[in-house]
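During the second half of the funding period, the structural biology subgroup turned its attention to how the target accommodates small molecules. The most pressing case was FE2/S2 (inorganic) cluster, which had performed well in the primary screen but for which no bound structure existed. We therefore specified the complex as follows and requested a full 3D prediction, including the ligand pose.
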Amino acid sequence: MIQNQWYAILPSSKVKAGSITAVKRLNMELALFRSQDGVLGCVVDQCTHRGAALSAGKVSGDCLRCPFHALEFDKSGKCTFIPANGKASPQDNRRYNVRAYTVKEEDGIIFLWYGDEEKQTGKLPFFHGELDDFVYRETKDHWNTHYSRAIENQLDVVHVPIVHYNTIGRGNKTLINGPKVLFEDDALITSANNEVDRGQLPKKPEDCVIKTTYLKFRYPNLWMNHISDKIRVVIYFAPVDDESTILYIRFYNKITRLAFVNRIIASVGTLANLVIERQDKRVVITQKPKASALKSGEKLLMGDAPIIEYRKRREQLKTQ
Ligand code: FES
Ligand SMILES: [Fe+2]
């Protein structure tokens, strides 16, 4: 994982008011809970008293109550009450505090700050202003691979005519020009520029352009396919552990002026996304090792430029 980043981890709708959701993310067992008035909290899912899962407890006001002996914790992880000691006892419970993580929400996604609290940035890594007036439908799938592999697959323009030969890669465009890769506002941008191989040499990246259909990636785990002005696909790759990832896939559109029609289109688009994503999954989960690395010993092609740039920047972020 890259430290000091906001990771998109879960749809907001998965944590309802007054309830608790247990998830494994970033190699940690977490209990996400929401008070009746909507405030979200996230703590490690293990009580400091005798180890029970806090996610099996209850929400009590703004706090989470352990199911075993009813110790209570607020969203900062502070132990606010120990019933066995009685209300009359001084409630200095610091040694029972549980590890908490800062979570924020935007566009229906829960983001978790992974790193030093004092390094926290105010801005979440979403595609701000780029999805206004769109409607979307979201689906998910679980892949047995590290999230870096799942992300690289979405930046891989070389596999498209091979893996997706009968869907989005129809036309046998196996010759890979460039592609051009650039960084804009710290997001990686690239676009496929593939052609049928008629015996010509592939163009160098510097002779290619970013087309109107392009890919945009924001670290650490958000990707967008800008298909057209009216259609986008967004994926957030929630890391579960070093060998598994949940992909949350959204199909966005604003094709008509009627939101309900656009929602129907989004539902159909979501089904198409699942077909395409399963074609990828079949191959990507076989890659070894499970996580990618800048110095991996893989023998990359010119067409792998987006993957190389993804790895370089990831390495920089990991070491800075
Ligand atoms: S194990 Fe949680 S209160 Fe005892
Ligand atoms: Fe693919």
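Two results from this model are relevant to the next phase. The first strand starts at residue 5 and ends at 11. Residues 259-284 form the longest helix (26 residues).
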